[in-house]
Amino acid sequence: MTEKNASALCDLVSMSFDELSEFVVTVLKQPKFRAVQIAEWIRRGACFSEMTNLPAKLIAELNEKAWLSYPSVFQKFVSQIDGTVKFLYRLHDGEYVESVVMQYEHGYSICLSTQAGCRMGCRFCASTIGGKVRDLLPGEILGQILVAEKDLSIRISNIVLMGIGEPLDNYDNVIRFLKLVNSEKGLNIGYRHISLSTCGLADRIYRLAEEDMPLTLSISLHAASDEARSEIMPVNKRFPLDALLTACRDYFDKTGRRISFEYTLIAGKNDRKEDAVKLAALLKKYLGKRPLHVNLIPVNEVEESGFKRGNKASVMQFAKELNALSINATVRRTLGADINASCGQLRHNADKNE
Ligand code: SAH
Q1: What pLDDT shows up at residue 57?
Q2: What structural domains and CATH numbers belong to the chain?
Q3: Rg, Å, the chain Cα set
């Protein structure tokens, strides 16, 4: 598929069932039951030539007038430690993105990418090193799930938008993806089983609160003062802590969903006792007694950033200090440590090698 074709033709993976039906009836001049058949195939990640219950003539017409934006599996890594699977996907235009499938007691969870690259510029993050190349289509985000399910013969029950890209910087496509995934005729996954992680685009958090989608919002906080946060996350200059945490409070008050904060621990930068005290005070100031959770993540050392992770004891100590200050905090379990499972690293290496 050339890029020209891809944009000119209709991506059926990005369509809702009603839109697909309309396309089948008005463009392909076929009866509606063909839309049901095509939707079932798309649900299974099939390409047109695999849709064996369609007449050959219709498959030829589909190839001419439509396309399927699923990514293809370029590389796949399976952790020998815990079975976590990481996919390096290739998109139709040669861009790469990553997804990670993790197994929990209650089922499978997938971490998805929403953009090829990222323009947020967080200094510790591998995904942002080459900047943003483009937004992913709704079907390219959904396709990461469909292809993983097909490849692994599993059903995914939980989704985290925590891979490459800033989901709220690709707002419309992400909202459309969320509706597709939630729809009964789509994957039928409840919003409560979906988390969206953002570096803090406060204006979009207000918009998201109005969408009537009770997602878990996860805020990449990483520092407890504007000075420290602006140094590692340029987005903080646009939306300082006051703007961000006021938006978080609004999100909770509108949706009733507990807010989760990500705090990446960087040795000597934000992992001292005084940082824990500041963090606790900040969260209490803005969120009072509202339920919240802090996820502590020892930083993954990305060569270009030079940031180091502290030892295990210092990480545990930081969690203990927060808990002592009545802040609910846990250290994130590391999965797929042997396969570079944190996002951005493979795409970055694939780009470096080209
Ligand atoms: N853009 C979104 C989602 C993608 S990043 C966001 O910023 O939230 C997913 C999470 O991984 C974020 O909390 C991000 O700050 C964190 N992260 C990125 N690079 C990391 C690294 N090197 N070590 C640990 N966490 C990292």
Answers
A1: 97
A2: 3-67 (1.10.150.530), 72-353 (3.20.20.70)
A3: 21
